[in-house]
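Support request, priority: normal
Reporter: lab tech (M.K.)
Component: structure prediction queue

Hi team, I submitted a job for Eclosion hormone from Nilaparvata lugens yesterday, and the status page still shows it as pending. I've pasted the exact input below so you can check whether something in the sequence is tripping the parser. The sequence length should be 77 residues. Please let me know if I need to resubmit or if it's stuck on your end.
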Amino acid sequence: MASKLLLAGLLLLVVALAVVEGNNIGVCIRNCAQCKKMFGAYFEGQLCADACVKFKGKLLPDCEDVASIAPFLNKLE
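Reply from support: The job had stalled in the queue. We restarted it manually and it finished. Here are the results:
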């Protein structure tokens, strides 16, 4: 009985971690979209979204923090 309970607990933990990771990617992509709306052509939204997927949402862009969005900004000439 204890082994079934342990297995169920581990399964629940794995599912919870997968949901959290998926949620981080979603938050990251939504932040990219928000920055694209704010900065328009100066912001590389697709590059930002690609980074969200590549790094599994660990690098969250913050439109008010230049350091977090610097790799996605470009100069229009």
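The chain has a mean pLDDT of 82. Residues 23-72 form one domain. Let us know if anything else looks off. Ticket resolved.
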